[in-house]
Give the backbone structure.
Amino acid sequence: MDVLQGLDSGEKYRWEVKGLPYAVELPLVRLPADGRTLKIASLNLVGQIRLNRDLGRLLAAKVREVVGTMDNVVMLTVVEKGLQLAQVVAEELGLEAVAVAYNRIKPHMEAQRRPVIQIGASSITSGGKFLALYERDMNLLARGRRFILMDDVVSSGGTIFSLADILEEVARQKDMPAPVIAGVFCAATEGEQSPLLPAPVYGLGKLPEPVVEPE
């Protein structure tokens, strides 16, 4: 049985990626957003071992093509749906660690004793939220000179803007030079990206634009 197909009921979108030797059936799901209902193709990479591995290898090749050497490069990603993908990409690139922005302040961060950065964010799939970065990953970013921003899907760009804000705040607190973002990388883009994003967006494939369903 092909575990990438047929496990979701209902309407599907056939997603094809150049270099991926198979297509993936993505369920079309409906999400509440600002009083409306959006129908989107849901690319959920959590638990998808083979798909993360295959997409990660393709995406790592694209990072090498765009960024070149990984000297002084640090990757910044966000939990949770893109984290498995980011780990595959990092391993393919020979990076030993990745900076991770969490979706809330967690107990292990010891926010009452250690530095934590928290930034507001928004996205089509999760709406308004906060991203938090704690001491360990702040210090990892402080070692970098060039940076890669990584997510599973880039649509409106809200999460990417927030990752860039986090990076700038780390640079301010650590007295670093202005951070150079070498690129934004993702498995898929969705709709039109903002021209104000901090770096070009490189995706492996494209998802259909979200559809506003009638009331």
Notes: DSSP finds four helices and eleven strands in the chain.
